[in-house]
Give the backbone structure.
Amino acid sequence: DTGVSQNPRHKITKRGQNVTFRCDPISEHNRLYWYRQTLGQGPEFLTYFQNEAQLEKSRLLSDRFSAERPKGSFSTLEIQRTEQGDSAMYLCASSGWGRQGSDTKNIQYFGAGTRLSVL
Amino acid sequence: GEDVEQSLFLSVREGDSSVINCTYTDSSSTYLYWYKQEPGAGLQLLTYIFSNMDMKQDQRLTVLLNKKDKHLSLRIADTQTGDSAIYFCAGLTGYALNFGKGTSLLVTP
């Protein structure tokens, strides 16, 4: 088990460009989450997948943001027409199957994040 | 987030105990967590507590939950320089974790 993996670790882009980030969750985890963290703040929830279904989206996820998890394994987060305000750390987390009485589904493990800088 | 509040900074001497405090407003939070973040890194889960518990101990870490006052604390015994980091309190509401702004812990020799 290698943990949650995110790529790239850093991305520098010009305003107006599109960017895509990838997250590979812990292999047996069926739940996947995206968060955004700006400087000096705690992470803020963006969206949640259970298997391939996107079940919850925050109001922070504007129309320029889209997330997918096509086969219920890895996920991508795309930002179109990037703005300077999109500069942040984008964190992915995953959690496991919840057997009855198990805490596993409620424990989110985070990747190292992708730091986006929009110039 | 505005629903979870933490003091921003704490400084302790190596070997002392550290106590990091958190208050939350959402009484429907089923689980409460402490995460650690080192510079430029992701979040490392330290410990968590179910909302019907009032204490949990895990090696050097002790979590206390006062549900009536919506107050959560993390005590780190025998604090080491490697414990210097930002500590985030978070509550689980539905699927989403709701984080505080973090407490920056500085451990001095």
Notes: Chain B has no helices and eleven strands. The mean pLDDT of chain B is 93. Residues 3 and 25 of chain B are 5 Å apart (CA to CA). The interface with chain A takes residues 1, 4, 30-31, 35, 40-45, 48, 50, 88, 90, 92, 94-102 of chain B (CB under 8 Å).
